[in-house]
Amino acid sequence: MNEMFVTGLLIVSLFLLLGSGVWIGLTLAGVAWIGMELFSSRSAGDAMAVTIWGSASSWTLTALPLFIWMGEILFRTRLSENMFKGLAPWVNALPGRLLHTNILGSTIFAAVSGSSAATCATIGKMTIPELTERGYPVERVIGSLGGASTLGLLIPPSIVMIVYGVAAEVSIAKLFVAGVIPGLMLAGLFSGYLMVWALMNPDKIPKADEGMSFTEKLRASSELIPVILLIGGVIGSIYVGVATATEAAAIGVVGSLMLSAYQKSLSWQNFKDALLGATRLYCMMALILAGAAFLTLAMGYIGLPRHLAEWVGSLGLSPGLLLIALGLFYIVLGCFLDGISMIVLTMGVIIPTVQAAGIDLVWFGIFIVLVVEMAQITPPVGFNLFVLQGMTRREINWIARVCLPYFLLMVLAACLLFWFPQIVMWLPGHM
């Protein structure tokens, strides 16, 4: 049967199910069922049972609920307040001054949360009222927070990286380590942009706070030491080979509980809320992953990934042109789907194409995460835009407009990764 007809029928089925309000995980499973029943000789029921059980029982996937729980625990601590107080004295002398607390705060919290939305909400609840009250331009406050909070996906531990690693069968530990330098590079680009803007608009930046001695700065930053130790424990244990990603996640949960107890914010109610919040979020992700695993199997039986890879190969596209096409595809897709859904929905088809082009899957994982980051601030379904809207009561389009410079900086970062692939591959090469 004509592959274009099959593809068209499945895409129509996908959008009809999504448009009717069916959950994404069930939609993926439904499309897979239609494909196998109509275009395959294998029994769809048996295949679904075996595939869903196999994907759900993956040991690697255990890291996902643990990192989510770690982020939920830290979300309920005084971490954002402590980070603002600890970072503010150090950025006072930089062009842009306290606006950099959004960038640095998001970078630090990203390294312990794994979630872009959680980073945005946690850092924003402290910096938005504080910076606005001090007279910083509200569009710069919101824009820098919206852009920087996307680092929650790129700087490990990252929930999206775990999902990609499972879907593409790539080492999650290598993905985590590979994301460190690109994440820091992107944070540097954001801060650099703020500095340039501040130098061009010095009249829009409030006066610096009263200067502090070096000893006073260290004292103000003392509350950040436990967080830095937690980050070092999680990432360091993976890099030196002491722990797998799953074991590092367990270290992170224990460390976050200890940090919460140290800050006297660990109560039975907070513990219960964090556990239930992590359970709800993971159940949603697990359903999507189960549906995606079945869809991937169905696509394999139908033969669509192989045909697509052959078709792309026949076009004679260079790896650069292929990545541009995939980048544009994911940016458009990100206007309508969240990051996790984007990855699980497409990996079964995209991975064979990428492998045929000779692109390293670890490097491609970081590239995809960066593109998914862009989707967090593209309307109408950018998750970070909704978080910021809930915190500021501003229009989505206005928030998207003030976040646009950071979107363009992410495009620049993606180009830098292509031109200099060692930005991604250097650290994993030394594991």
State the end-to-end distance. 47 Å
Order of helices and strands: HHHHHHHHHHHHHHHHHHHHHHH
Shape: globular
How much of the sequence lies in strands comes to under 5%
**Radius of gyration using CA atoms only:** 22 Å
Instruction: Give a short account of the largest sheet.
Output: none
Count of separate DSSP helical elements: 23
Oligomer: single chain
Determine the fraction of residues in helical runs and give it as a percent range.
over 70%
- Going by helix content, strand content and strand pairing, the class is mainly alpha
Strand tally = 0
Which residue ranges are poorly predicted, with pLDDT under 50 across at least 5 consecutive positions? none
Domain module count = 1
Q: Averaging pLDDT over every residue, what do you get? A: 83
Give your account of this protein's structure.
With 431 residues, the protein is mainly alpha-helical. It has one domain. The chain has 23 helices and no strands. It has helices at residues 3-19, 24-39, 44-56, 63-75, 79-91, 100-113, 116-133, 138-148, 151-154, 159-168, 172-178, 180-200, 214-220, 225-239, 245-262, 268-302, 304-315, 319-333, 339-356, 361-375, 383-392, 396-419, 422-425. Helix 10 (159-168) packs across helix 20, helix 19 packs antiparallel against helix 20 and helix 20 (361-375) runs antiparallel to helix 22. The termini are far apart. The mean pLDDT is 83.
